[in-house]
Amino acid sequence: MGSAILYGAGVIFVLAIISSFIFSILLRFTSVTETSLTYIIMAASFISLFIGGFISGGKGKKQGWMLGGGTGLLYLFIIMLFKYLGHDSLFSLKEWIYQGCFILTAMMGGVLGVNLSSNSK
How far, in Å, CA of 72 to CA of 46, rounded? Predict the structure, then answer.
């Protein structure tokens, strides 16, 4: 169960690195502004968390909501550590709401991952 959560969180961070690289290239070499990409970046974040929960649920093959939730909580913990230790600040109310939605999205991905992995056999 723990390895499935770690694998899902790893996928989330790999997808985050790839999307960050793509967005940074877009921002650097085009006239696109950061404010015009806000909703696209948010959608990419939700998709990454869903895919991470899906992978986690598929690896664990049972209790998808728990695996997805654990993956989302691990993501939350790492981001909170980065924000607190790196920037010496905590989440605002708006960021807590986003993180809660991220956890719910990862849980939905975990449930779907378990159901699709068990139906394929």
Answer: 11
